[in-house]
């Protein structure tokens, strides 16, 4: 197996992580959900012992580790953006509830 083929699952996961970050930054959470599920499937193959052994035999641990660190950094940013979005949605919901109470009170 050549180097590119061995690193392909990590490259794909990194590329998908970058795409997820772009989606999160614009708030496209529907597309985000679809892509995150695809990425999760790919990440399962990376956790395979044979795959990890192949990386070690090809002396690709450093490159793999660097890619994994990039994915982890993106994941951290994704968590931050998700938390910000969650807080905004909660705030919007509270405002909507207040508005509905005001409408109900006015209608009486």
From TrEMBL:
Keywords: Bacterial flagellum biogenesis, Chaperone, Cytoplasm
Top-level taxon of origin: Bacteria
Gene3D superfamilies in the cross-refs: Flagellar protein flit
Any one GO BP annotation for this protein: bacterial-type flagellum organization
InterPro entries: FliT
Pfam families, sorted: FliT
Subcellular location: Cytoplasm, Cytosol
Protein name in UniProt: Flagellar protein FliT
Protein species of origin: Cellvibrio mixtus
Taxonomic lineage of the native organism: Bacteria, Pseudomonadati, Pseudomonadota, Gammaproteobacteria, Cellvibrionales
